């Protein structure tokens, strides 16, 4: 059974979604994520939390929301601005289950090694956000290295959890790019998939490819996918 992680993308504390990673194409879904989640009929067992402003600036800032979600017992995977060992440690101390590393772990092998040595492979997720065959870093604003060789290197280093985003489909509800996901389903490690998921059929297709985790954002916020159909009640 594929593991579904509903995404909460935050910008200045608001729940938002971007289209293809473009900050000038931002839709606000709720002013307050804590109130929004309280209005759901049951608590989400797990949440993929991203600080979009932190991804741009390099400094995670949504500490109060992270801490409150952890206090409520949600399993939180959090990313966006984790570019120092101290910031990772603070988020884990505040209750995060694991930290999603992107720009710094991609561009700085020494940092990637130090983080892995201190926190271990079960507490860290490497994020590869891909557009036109290249990784994107710094809030998807800059081009990074080739994703295949980068992941081979980080896997050899000891990383085992990987989140991959197909930026071209992210926030579009246009459905999956099957060839993209067939390719990433066959790499080493445990892959979480995101970008374009619009239906239960898409989730089932990812599971059929052998991908164990999927992150859904606009699909659940817009109601295209009902959470009761993909999460335990």
Describe the protein:
By secondary structure, the chain is α/β, with parallel strands linked by helices. It has a single domain, classed as Alpha-Beta Barrel (TIM Barrel), CATH 3.20.20.70. The protein is built from 10 helices and 12 strands. The chain has helices at 33-38, 52-57, 63-71, 85-93, 103-107, 109-119, 147-157, 178-185, 200-209, 218-221, and strands at residues 3-11, 14-19, 22-30, 46-51, 75-79, 98-101, 124-131, 134-137, 142-143, 161-166, 190-194, 213-216. An 8-stranded parallel barrel has the order 1-4-5-6-7-10-11-12, surrounded by 6 helices. It is globular. The chain starts with a strand and ends in a 12-residue tail after the last helix.
Helices and strands, with pairings:
Layout: E1 3-11, E2 14-19, E3 22-30, H1 33-38, E4 46-51, H2 52-57, H3 63-71, E5 75-79, H4 85-93, E6 98-101, H5 103-107, H6 109-119, E7 124-131, E8 134-137, E9 142-143, H7 147-157, E10 161-166, H8 178-185, E11 190-194, H9 200-209, E12 213-216, H10 218-221
Parallel strand pairs: 1-4, 1-12, 4-5, 5-6, 6-7, 7-10, 10-11, 11-12
Antiparallel strand pairs: 1-2, 2-3, 7-8, 8-9
- Largest sheet features: 8 strands, parallel, barrel
- Tally the helices: what do you get? 10
Spans of at least 5 consecutive residues with low confidence: none
Q: Based on the coordinates given, report the CATH architecture.
A: Alpha-Beta Barrel
CATH class: Alpha Beta
Write down the secondary-structure element order.
EEEHEHHEHEHHEEEHEHEHEH
Write out the strand line-up for the largest beta sheet, numbering strands in chain order.
1-4-5-6-7-10-11-12
Relative helix content:
25-40%
Number of domain units: 1
The CATH topology annotation reads as TIM Barrel
Percent of residues in β-strands: 25-35%
CATH superfamily: Aldolase class I
- Rg on CA atoms, Å: 16 Å
Query: Roughly what is the average pLDDT, rounded to an integer?
Result: 94
Q: What's the total count of β strands?
A: 12
Sum up the overall morphology in one term: globular
Class based on secondary structure composition and strand pairing? alpha/beta
Whole-Å distance between the termini? 15 Å
């Amino acid at each position: 059974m594929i593991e579904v992680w509903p995404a909460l993308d935050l910008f200045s504390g608001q729940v938002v979604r971007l289209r293809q990673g473009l900050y000038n194409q931002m839709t606000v879904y709720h002013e307050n994520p804590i109130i929004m989640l309280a209005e759901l009929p049951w608590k989400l067992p797990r949440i993929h939390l991203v600080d979009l402003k932190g991804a741009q600036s390099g400094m995670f800032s949504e500490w109060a929301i992270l801490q409150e979600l952890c206090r409520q017992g949600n399993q939180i995977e959090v990313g966006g601005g984790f570019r120092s060992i101290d910031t990772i440690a603070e988020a884990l101390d505040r209750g995060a289950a694991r930290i999603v590393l992107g720009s710094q772990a991609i561009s700085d092998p020494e940092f990637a090694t130090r983080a892995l040595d201190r926190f271990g492979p079960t507490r860290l997720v490497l994020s590869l956000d891909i557009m036109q065959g290249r990784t994107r870093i710094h809030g998807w604003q800059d081009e990074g290295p080739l994703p295949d060789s980068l992941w081979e290197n980080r896997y050899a280093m000891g990383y085992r959890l990987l989140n991959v985003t197909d930026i071209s489909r992210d926030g579009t509800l246009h459905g999956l790019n099957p060839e993209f996901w067939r390719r990433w389903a066959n790499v080493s490690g445990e892959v979480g998939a995101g970008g374009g998921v619009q239906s239960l059929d898409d989730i089932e297709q990812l599971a059929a490819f052998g991908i164990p985790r999927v992150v859904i954002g606009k699909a659940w916020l817009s109601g295209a996918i009902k959470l009761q159909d993909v999460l335990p009640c």
